[in-house]
Amino acid sequence: MGDWLRAHQNLSPEQQEKLLESDPNFKRLPPQRQAELKEWLRKFNSLTPAQRARALNRMQWMASLSVQQRQELRDANQKLEKLPQDRQLMVHKALRHLRQMNPQERQQEFESDRFKSTFSDEEQGILTRLAGIVPPENEAGNGAQAPAETPK
Q1: Would you state the pLDDT for residue 120?
Q2: CA angle (95 as vertex; 94, 101 as ends), nearest 5
Q3: What pLDDT digit, counting tens, does each position of 75-101 carry?
Q4: CA 50 to CA 52: how far, in whole Å?
Q5: Which of 11, 20, 50, 135 could cysteine-pair with 15, CB 3.0–4.6 Å?
Q6: What are the boundaries of each domain within the chain?
């Protein structure tokens, strides 16, 4: 999807949707999936230019991950979504902090008593899995929050 969007980003949203509808791969999808992609395209086009750029970078980054890394990311995010809202916020905050650290500092944090007493075993597992997979906006050190994952 990221490559397609980059190739057609200078078209109007209406032109993009027409082009999408004429794509043979799109035509082979079930109607519900087609509707989801069209809705996703509309939402993407409603983002600011900076948000669209981050989303495109995120898609490119996701495509660069190994199959195993993408699966780990999905699994950890599914577990994260099952946590109560207040715990999700705590885990997200800790994740942003951990991603600013180098691997050695992260390992020290994981082994600290404070970390172990703050987070449950499940939360520690989520943080351990997600902290090592660093989105490009965190590699640059700006700490910007990553946009939502591209639809599957």
Answers
A1: 96
A2: 95
A3: 999 999 999 999 999 999 999 999 889
A4: 5
A5: 11
A6: 2-64, 67-134
